[in-house]
Amino acid sequence: MKNLLLLTDFSDNAYAAAQYAAKLAPLWGIEKVVLYHTYEVVPTVGTEPVVISNAEILEEKQKDLNSWEEDLIQLFPQGIAWKVVLEEYELSYGVNRTCAEEDIDLVVVGTAGKSGFKKLLLGSNTLKLIENCHTPLLVVPAKAEFRIPKKMLIATNLKEVKLKLDRLLVNAAEVLRKSEVYVVHVTKEDPANKAVSAEIETMKAMLASYQPMYSYILTSDIATGINQYINENHIDMMVCFHRDKGMLSRIFNTSIAQKMAWKSQAAMLVISV
Fold first, then answer.
1. 99: which of 3, 19, 84, 135 fits an S-S bond (Cβ 3.0–4.6 Å)?
2. What share of the chain is helix, strand, coil (3-state, %, to 5)?
3. Of residues 108, 111, 110, 91, the one with CA closest to residue 256
4. Tens digits of residue pLDDT in 111-121
5. Which residues contact 14 (CB under 8 A, 6 or more apart)?
6. Euclidean distance between CA atoms 64 and 253, whole angstroms
7. Residue 59, SS3 per DSSP
8. E strands, the chain, where?
9. Torsion angle of alpha carbons 66, 54, 135, 227, nearest 10°?
10. CA 218 to chain centre
11. Domains of the chain (ranges plus CATH)?
C-alpha cells in the first residue's frame, strides 16, 4: 500500500484518525498522502451529483485544508508526497473519483466527526460509504489507541471465499505477512455442511502460508460474537468484506446502539469485492 487517501471534516476525531494513519505509514510503506474534504452537497439527480457553489465557503475550507496539511506533514515520516483535494461532491462519489485519479491504495476515515461526517459515521451513510468505496477502507474508532497491527482478524461468513480472499491478498498480502492472522467463521450453519466445508477448505488452502488460527462463531448475534472474540484475543485490527452488506449492517447498528467495546480497541479494514 503506497498511496493513502485521508478523509477529514476538521474534527478532533478526524485528527485522531490522521494520527493513527501517520503511525501506520512507515509500517505499511506509505509514499503519498492525499488529504481530502468534501462539503455542502445536494443529493444526486440521475447519475450526476448536483452541487451549490459558494466562493466564501470554498475559500475558508481551502484555508482549513492547507492548515491541516501543514500540521499533518509533521506527524508523518519525512519523504512522503502530499496533495490536498477539496470538492463539492457527494462523499462516496468523490472518494471513488479521487481514488481512481490518484491511484489510491487505502482510504482512512475516523468514526465520529461533526456535521456531515457525524451523520456519515454514526448512521446509514457509514454503510453507504463502506458498500460503495471501491478501495480498501480503514475505519479508525474515535477512542482507538494506536497499536502495531500484530494481530489481525479476518471475519467471514463462509460465502464466496475465493472471491473475497483474492481481493484481500491483492490489496493486503504484505500487511498480513507482518501480522499474526486469526480467522473467524461467522455462520449459523453447521461447519460439517458440505457447501460450508468446501468454502473452509478453499480458505485453508489460500491462507496456508500465513498459518492462521481458525475459530467459529455459531450465533445469530454476529456483533456480540465478534466483540467477544476481539476482546479475548486482543485483536489489533479486523478485516471484513463489504459484499457482506447484511453482516456489516448488523455489526455497525449493534455496535453503535450498545457502544460495543471493540470500537475503542480495533480499527477495521474493509475490503471491497
1. 135
2. 45, 25, 30
3. 111
4. 764 444 444 44
5. 7, 8, 109, 110, 113, 117
6. 32
7. helix
8. 3-7, 32-38, 41-45, 48-51, 81-87, 106-110, 137-140, 151-156, 180-186, 213-217, 237-241, 267-271
9. 90
10. 25
11. 3-140 (3.40.50.620), 151-267 (3.40.50.620)
pTM of the model: 0.82
Copy the grid coordinates of residue 109. 476515515
Detail the DSSP E strand segments found in 115-179.
137-140, 151-156
| Residues 38, 243: Cα–Cα separation, whole Å | 25
Contact 121, 111 (CB under 8 A): yes
Q: How far is the C-alpha of 106 from the C-alpha of 73, rounded, in Å?
A: 18
Which amino acid belongs to residue 174? Answer: E
CA dist., res. 102 & res. 69, Å (int): 17
Neighbours of 70 (CB within 10 A): 10
Give, in order, the Cα–Cα distances in Å from 122 to each of 13, 231, 249.
13, 22, 12
